[in-house]
Amino acid sequence: MARDLSDKEIMAMELEQLQKEVKNERIPVSTTAKELVAWIESQAAEDHLLKGIPEDKNPFKEKGGCLIT
């Protein structure tokens, strides 16, 4: 697609994209990191990767053992 466009058209597309990006709200990483840590800690009680899945609700638990005699 870029081969079919002239340099002027490509620069116009880049300008349009930059104009969209400049409108995005900027938040300092320090603020965002604190919010992210707080959210993760608030969700930790429900996180199955941290606390595991109860045996009775685990759909992947083997239903029966294999007996080789």
TrEMBL record:
**Record carries keyword Magnesium:** no
GO BP annotations listed: G protein-coupled receptor signaling pathway
* Occurrences of domain G protein gamma (ranges): 1-69
Record's bilayer topology term: Lipid-anchor
SMART domains named in the record: G_gamma (SM01224), GGL (SM00224)
Could you tell me the keywords of this UniProt record?
Cell membrane, Lipoprotein, Membrane, Methylation, Prenylation, Transducer
One GO cellular component term noted in the UniProt record for this chain: heterotrimeric G-protein complex
Tell me the PROSITE patterns matching this sequence: G_PROTEIN_GAMMA
Identify the Pfam families for this entry. Answer: G-gamma
* Quaternary context: G proteins are composed of 3 units; alpha, beta and gamma.
What family classification does the UniProt entry report for this protein? Answer: Belongs to the G protein gamma family.
Q: Please give the function described in this protein's UniProt entry.
A: Guanine nucleotide-binding proteins (G proteins) are involved as a modulator or transducer in various transmembrane signaling systems. The beta and gamma chains are required for the GTPase activity, for replacement of GDP by GTP, and for G protein-effector interaction.
User: What protein name applies here?
Assistant: Guanine nucleotide-binding protein subunit gamma
The protein's organism comes out as Acipenser oxyrinchus oxyrinchus
